[in-house]
Design a protein that fits this description.
With 444 residues, this protein is α+β, with helices and mostly antiparallel strands. Helix content is 34%, strand content 25%. A hairpin with a 4-residue loop joins strand 2 and strand 3.
């Protein structure tokens, strides 16, 4: 007897039996999921005391060096001042009268200024350029008083906004960043602040400007020229730092704070915000060049799997209503990762399950790993119940027994068949002898 033919016949019978009971359809699996950080054994070079690098589009921390420890933010504070002004003064073309109050104490503090003169009426937009490009404290104070009537009220507004953004390590005492022991933040908080400010196209436009000239003002009939404190050192040929995809930033400096920079850049599908603080010389710029370049060379935005990708299909035995449970990727999984990272999709899901199966029953765990590190995982749960059929159970049990003991079963069947054939032949022989004997008796 042909073994394969016999087995195929049995399987065909099983299929017909299931179809007769009820048409079976695959079910899908629902899941619990989480994304885990990827830790790189290598680190970019940086001399700044505080470094924090964050992909703002994909909500992924890439590198932190004392990023959550207290630091003095210096003039990076002005990002908050401009953000509050953008929210409070929605018309960028409205004008503000410059008063002596807005200059109070700035000369004594040796603060950097844009150069607006009392009696002039620059626009809100011009003041924002003055606050960011030359880091003008006069422009900041003008925005503060225009927003809330006084510097102190504006500082309260700044702290309220910081709390709203979740800047847990931050407390402002002034809108300019001039040193005060209680004026404190962290590189992480500065990154959070900068990300929020980037939601405003005007802020992005200001950051891109290397220089700017206001419209005619009473003390500056040809306009007040302003120059960026960072762009002259970046991507401008010899003796400047090359930063891939650089989109601008805001510098800061006081003696206690050191040199600081909060900036952003885009390359390799990533949009990164970088904060460097506590540097000396041009360390805040050179560190930005080193960190951005290191990640440009080594990292990229990778899609590891698309929503709906089939991981596996688990056969369901002994059920008339569910034939299989499909485990699929519940969402598109992407992450900033090393360009040469080795990606694996692993799981401990069984090849088959026996009914009954309850809705929500644990099926197994699926992991996506990069260089051996689990960066995404989820627990597959059945989203349907699969009822049990005793008839199918016994039939499947028989098929399993047949499949694993095919030679024994076929041998036994062959032996039975042989016995039947022998018995039939013997019976025929007996009948033939009886007929012959009967004819001999009749002839005599």
């Amino acid at each position: 007897m042909n073994q394969d033919l016999a087995y195929n016949s049995l399987m065909s019978f099983k299929t017909a039996l299931i179809s007769a009971l009820l048409l079976s359809v695959p079910a899908k699996a629902s899941i619990w999921k989480q994304t885990l950080p990827y830790t790189d054994e290598n680190e970019p070079p940086a001399t700044s005391q505080h470094v924090y690098l964050y992909d703002i589009d994909h909500d992924q921390l890439l590198y932190s060096k004392h990023g959550e420890e207290p630091m003095y933010p210096a003039s990076m504070t002005k990002v908050m001042s401009v953000l509050v002004a953008m929210e409070t003064l929605p018309d960028p073309y409205s004008t503000v009268l410059i008063t002596d109050e807005m200059w109070a104490g700035l000369i004594e503090e040796n603060a950097s200024v844009a150069g607006f003169s009392p009696g002039e009426t620059p626009t809100v937009e011009e003041l924002m350029y003055g606050a960011v490009l030359p880091s003008g404290a006069d422009a900041v104070n003008a925005l503060a008083i225009a927003c809330d009537g006084s510097i102190s009220a504006f500082v309260d507004h700044m702290n309220q906004k910081a709390a709203e953004l979740g800047m847990a390590d931050t407390h402002f005492t002034n809108p300019t960043g001039l040193h005060d022991p209680d004026h404190i933040s962290s590189a992480k908080d500065m990154g959070i602040l900068f990300r929020e400010a980037l939601n405003y196209p005007l802020f992005q436009e200001i950051l891109l400007a290397r220089d700017y000239v206001t419209g005619p003002l009473s003390a500056h009939p040809d306009g007040l020229p302003m120059f960026s404190t960072s762009w002259p050192l970046i991507n401008d040929g010899e003796d400047t730092y090359t930063i891939p995809g650089y989109l601008g930033g805001k510098t800061g400096f006081t003696n206690p704070a050191g040199r600081c920079l909060v900036s952003h850049a885009a390359f390799n599908g990533m949009h990164l915000v970088l904060v460097t603080g506590g540097a000396s010389g041009t360390g805040h710029i050179s560190d930005a060049a080193s960190v951005y370049s290191w990640f440009e060379e080594n990292y990229e935005w990778k899609t590891l799997g698309n929503q709906g990708d089939l991981i596996t299909s688990i056969a369901v035995e002994d059920s008339p209503d569910v034939s299989a449970i499909e485990v699929r990727l519940p969402e598109t999984v992407s992450m900033d990762l090393p360009k040469n990272a080795h990606i694996e999709t692993l799981h401990d899901l069984p090849e088959s399950l026996h009914a009954p199966i309850e809705k929500g029953q644990h099926l197994g765990t699926v992991r996506i790993a990069a260089d051996g590190q689990t960066i995404y995982e989820y627990e597959a749960l059945s989203d349907v119940s699969a009822s049990h059929s005793s008839l199918l159970h016994y039939w499947n049990a028989w098929l399993r027994f047949y499949h694993s003991h095919r030679i024994l079963v076929l041998g036994a069947a062959g032996a039975v068949l042989l016995l039947v054939v022998v018995k039939v032949l013997r019976d025929r022989a007996k009948k033939k002898r009886r007929r012959k004997k009967h004819r001999r008796k009749s002839g005599s």
